[in-house]
Amino acid sequence: MTAGRPLETSALTHEGRVRTNNEDALCVRADEGLFVVADGMGGHENGEWASAAIAEAMQNVVLPAGFDEASQAIADALHRANATIHAEAESRGLQMGSTVVVLLVRDGRFAILWVGDSRAYLHRDGELVRLSHDHTQVQEMIDRGLLEPGDAEGHPMGHILARAMGVREEVEVDVVADEVESGDVFLLCSDGLMARVDDVEIAAALADPDAESRAERLVRMTLERGAPDNVTIITVGIPQTTMLRLNQPTHLVTP
Description:
Elements: E1 8-14, E2 24-29, E3 34-41, H1 44-60, H2 67-92, E4 97-106, E5 109-115, E6 119-124, E7 127-130, H3 137-143, E8 173-179, E9 185-189, H4 191-194, H5 199-206, H6 214-224, E10 231-237, E11 250-252
Helix pairs in contact: 1-2, 5-6
């Protein structure tokens, strides 16, 4: 549970200007501080099925009262969803999967859990910080010093994932966890946003004092610029006051 005033949330998903179906899915359990964005892959019904399976798993997961226990419950549910999607893909004889990014907020703390290139950002004191690290082949090339960050935009391998839900029997789930501060605003988004809206514009939208309009503002900008992909946005504003110490990602692995 979250303490103090309610979280300031906004959420919106759109199929975009080109695609006729929406392979994104979201889950919002604001009273319990749980928020999820999933971006399906595999085309039409397959991608929709995969992302919906993740959203359903997150909607149904039972969250213990403790922050650490709830974080582990989410990780366990993601591992189960991965197995479910992989088994469905095997039965259909098709490749299908999804990215996912999850935010848990309670007791003055937050956790971000993710697989793939759906992202989590934090806007604090006028600064935008990306909390997640893309699981893509291009990002791996950057990490290994084989590609300059400035050359990543428009790279022909830019949309090839190095890790995704449902592609293999087992998956690693990355997590960062720390404390929150008054005025923090978190953003969860599918990659349809980053292709059309830059960090300066994202920061400006998250600084909007009208918390309910933040997602609408970001989706509107994406649509105005052609929106060739689905786009899904969740923003979460934090009213309580604590402190933040950013940690390096670790892995939550079920036994």
